[in-house]
Design brief:
The protein is an alpha/beta fold. Helices cover 49% and strands 13% of the residues.
Length: 445
């Protein structure tokens, strides 16, 4: 009991600190997706499975709604799933507040990693190994996807959709106009950026209001400089976030800010309001480092513009022997966990099983997603998406996003200090010290 209460207290603290983390009100909340938490439970509420997720619009909405619609149309369980989407930037806070008040929904998505582990430790997720065997899902998903859904040797979540990697989308026509090649090293990338600056074009579209968008630069630069061992050692308390690779990442970010590689007022721009992608559409920016889910965003917003889009993995750091095949991202993107038991759990799992169905996979491919299933390579025909999948399958390792892998309180410090780096209000050394201190305090607990 003490352990559970301690975990809930930690979640409550996280709720106060995770408003800007990236990407379940009470049970029976409105399916309209507002955050009011108003009670709309039916008279037969015990037969309603409440499902919280981030599918509010576009490709995310289509992909996440698919399983709900199929389950409700075909199930013989007697249960109905009520879909409750919430905007990305508000979602994690809402979920943690619900858990801390004992009102976690029956089904909910997360990004796995440290927060998911906290949810499990708090008793708000159930082991699913027996249901995986019953529904034959273990043989369908990529091993890396199941690994990210596993904690202490047991599977606690179902991958829903998309192999998401951090990478650079770029305007092929703009590269051709200025006779630029896809960069293989950071120094080559900087030459590309300098060419665009000389011609009045912002090199990188970035809206860093939510902080996690800018964090991708830090993660990619650190991984290309030092590999994954420094990060993993720092998290385990055997190394430090004051390692050279983290200092390099901070210094390079600030160097690029000073050179004007990012939009003016970058920390005040909103990703959810589309202020970064608009710079791409207006062709006032040439590149965008973002998760590969943007294939769906670009293609659904404007198929004509998508024809101009290319993609490349973040370049290697000159002189570093770090493995440049390493990727930052997730194999599954959103993972469904369950806060229910017995027949309701089985029905909820039945709903989630539709994410690996042929219809779901076809829809994911259609909207620019990469199913985290073993047969994904047979389904993908789009050139950009195939390139992203190739990068994922050839990677020696895929490091989960820092803000999802780290404990919530540490992740928040990481995001805060990253935004401060972009705002030039802290030094790389100060940012790393705060990052390391937060990790040490967490490990000391």
């Amino acid at each position: 009991m003490k352990k559970r209460m301690a975990r809930i207290a930690a979640l409550m603290m996280a709720a106060a600190m995770t408003v800007s983390l990236a990407a379940c009100g009470g049970k029976g909340a409105s399916s309209g997706g507002d955050d009011s938490g108003s009670d709309s439970k039916s008279a037969d509420g015990d037969k309603v499975i409440t499902y919280w997720n981030i599918g509010t619009e576009g490709a995310d909405k289509e992909a996440l709604e698919y399983a709900v619609n199929e389950f409700n149309a075909n199930t013989k369980s007697g249960y109905t799933v009520e879909n409750v989407p919430t905007q990305n930037d508000n979602y994690k806070e809402k979920l943690v507040v619900a858990m801390s008040s004992g009102e976690c929904p029956d089904m909910y998505t997360s990004w796995s990693g440290g927060p998911m582990n906290e949810y499990i430790e708090s008793g708000y997720a159930q082991p699913l190994d027996d249901l995986y065997e019953e529904y034959g899902l273990k043989d369908k998903y990529m091993d890396a996807a199941l690994a990210q859904a596993t904690y202490n040797g047991k599977i606690y979540a179902v991958p829903t959709y998309n192999v998401s990697l951090a990478g650079v989308f770029y305007n092929k026509e703009m590269f051709e106009k200025y006779k630029l090649e896809v960069p293989k090293t950071v120094s080559e990338l900087e030459k590309v950026c300098d060419t665009f600056k000389e011609n009045g074009i912002t090199p990188f579209a970035l809206a860093n209001g939510p902080k996690w968008t800018g964090s991708m630069y830090f993660q990619c630069l650190a991984a290309r400089k030092g590999g994954l061992e420094p990060f993993q050692s720092a998290v385990a308390g055997e190394g430090t976030f004051e390692d050279e690779c983290f200092k390099y990442a901070g210094e390079k970010i600030q160097e690029w800010v000073e050179k004007g590689y990012f939009p003016e007022g970058v920390n005040s721009l909103s990703e959810d309001d589309g202020q970064a992608k608009q710079l791409m559409y207006q062709e006032t920016a040439a590149m965008m480092l973002i998760g590969s889910w943007y294939t769906g965003t670009f293609s659904s917003d404007s198929p004509e513009f998508y024809e101009k889009i290319g993609w490349f993995s973040f370049p290697a750091v000159d002189g570093s022997d770090a493995d440049a095949s390493i990727q930052i991202g997730t194999i599954g993107d959103q993972f469904v966990s369950f806060n229910c038991e017995g027949d309701k759990l089985k029905a909820a799992f039945e709903c989630a099983s539709y994410y690996s169905s042929d219809g779901a996979k076809d829809l994911m491919v259609e909207v620019g997603k990469i199913p985290p299933t073993k047969d994904a390579t047979d389904l993908i025909t789009d050139g950009v998406t195939k390139q992203i999948l190739d990068a994922a399958t050839s990677a020696s390792s895929v490091q989960l996003w820092y803000d999802q892998y780290l404990p919530p309180a540490v992740a928040q410090v990481h995001l805060d200090t990253c935004q401060e780096l972009f705002g030039l209000t802290t030094t790389p050394e100060e940012a790393d010290q705060k990052f390391e201190q937060a990790m040490e305090e967490y490990l000391a607990e």
